Here is the input.
Amino acid sequence: MHFGNRADNFGHRPEAKPVDLSVLELTISVKQHMDLSKRNIHNPILNPEDISPSTEGMKIECLLNPGVFRFENKTWLLLRVAERPEQKDGELSFPVLKNGKMEILSFRTNDPDLDSSDPRIIQYRGTSYLTTLSHLRLVCSDDGVHFKESRDHAPIFGEGPQESFGIEDCRVTTIGKSYHLTYTKVSPQGVGVGYMFTRNWKQFDRRGMIFPPHNKDCAIFGEKLNNRYYALHRPSSPELGGNYIWISQSNDLIHWGDHQCIATTRDQSWDSARIGAGAAPIRTSEGWLEIYHGADSDHRYCLGALLLDLNNPSLVLSRSEEPIMEPTEEYERNGFFGKVIFTNGQLVDGDTITIYYGASDEVICMAEFSVKEILASLKISK
Ligand code: MAN
Here is the structure.
């Protein structure tokens, strides 16, 4: 849509038509209601071709869902890098980890026992596999927009049988001078939450699985409350319950208890099929602000917000009725797995939240929100 009477390529100027301002106002208010984000003009800021494969013979198919932190005066992303070998006609091949080494599994695409309708997962004779193997990679930037791979910091790969299908979607919570990493461990045994911490991004203290399958989307709060650590996480309960956000408490960040469900999916809504926490909740004057993802039965992933009580974050004060960000741009609608906006990393500076997000499960993007604007939208939702 354009307003006014711009000349066409041949210099013909169409007759000026009066602009119907009521339509314009309606469009603006509807748009503002739906999407509070300001996308960066450089989006996507990272594409699979910008990063080098971990091993010869591998191709990076997707960059996804980075954890974000500040370290040594730079902005860092801990990317999820999803790889597989270059695909040959009539064959579907992907790596798995076995005894610390990559092994390639292959299936004929015309095998009647193969179900490859979801580009992320295949089913073969009752067993599920991922079509790519993910590891975590560090990239850093002086301006928060242009990122380069760090030569001084090695990639983080899955280790042991609980991570044989890789590690994914790592949240990074900074507490004092320590960085606490919660990530998805994937293997045929199931999908659970792994935890490790580091101070220098060179040595990592891996502390194993802190939430057993099926569980993911774990974000640790950046400070203790009532002398305890808190974390949001997302267990799945297939028969009774569903894919809901829970909160738990711990004295040592490893053993978690006092589990409570704080938010469920909503029928007929943009978040009707699954919801999960993004990065660590943000302390605001009104409460803890959590940007979370919600998906519908069509696997369309949007972002919304939850406001949790400052002293007792298991109390939800308010929740977005409508998404605060939806997959509307070309790079968010089309890609490895389209119609996806997924965030688990952000930086907060005064009123500005800068989220880094995976779009279409393929490229890395960034967008800004105003804390005040999200809080105002939550007042309407209340
Ligand atoms: C799941 C996870 C995410 C991914 C979304 C959308 O929630 O595997 O990593 O981005 O699905 O595919």
